[in-house]
Amino acid sequence: MKPQTQGSHRFVLYLGFPSGLSLRVEDWFRSFFRISGFWFRVSGFPVPGSTRTSLYLHEHSRSLPRMYRPGKVKRFDFPTGRGVAGKYVIERPLGSGWEGEVYAIIERNTGIRRAAKFYYPHRDPTGKAAIAYARKLDALRHCPILMQYHHQEVAYVKKKKVTVVISELVEGKKLSEFLFDQPGHRLSTFEALNVLYLLAKGIAPIHARGEYHGDIHDNNIMIRRQGIGFEVKLLDFFDLGAPSRSKIRKDVLNLVEVFHTTVGGRKHYAQQPKVVKDIIRGLRDSLILERFQSAGDIARHLENLEW
After folding, report:
1. What is the pLDDT of residues 28-64, one digit of tens each?
2. Max Cα-Cα span within the chain
3. Are 151 and 203 members of one domain?
């Protein structure tokens, strides 16, 4: 069984059998899938000090309890102009993930633009995930790098109750899209260091509270040029359970991976200056965590650079 990570939380599981049968199963933590008529349960969690994931495969049974029976993921795919909860109008999609979809919306009465996260009913049937998400946003409201929570709404889609979290609309482009538009699909060394500093400085107060973000990657970072620098914001975060040092360290590793991407990735790593390699450290978890234990450590390292 060979696990490989994709993005921040998704894993790919390869199963080998004596008969030579090989299966590739893409799923998420705490999920079920079926092989030859039997249901199996997969649970996974990040390995402390590593970007890898430990997986457990449990034979379950030939049937699943009703509440756990997986079905085809049903997307919302709301069209522009659709009304929501009688108060808002869909402007455009912003992104989607395992839990739901995010849209830019316009408040009918005021014309104010917001962001709305619509939770899939089959992913969050009781609304607990949405509540936890809103509470965490509110608890971290003094961290300006995060979008600001406003309130919750309830909408009905095809007669199903859908929880909607309304928050600040973050302007700009996803970092992945922004990089695609740059020469060579990367930033200069100074620009990349600037972006890393803004991210580290913004996440440092979260780590200082003993909290974590859990979903730092280039599709979850909004960026726009502002004057001679940049403005960056983090979008969604992911609930990996109770805060811990290992989850904070995972944020650190993800920050360094984002920095690696902004300077051009593996293709350009050999030609990078020492100031870049001293941070990326060959993307070796142990070497990175030997130097940086939190986002604050990265920010202080950048503040004291001599180059």
Report:
1. 333 444 444 444 444 444 444 444 444 444 444 444 4
2. 64
3. no
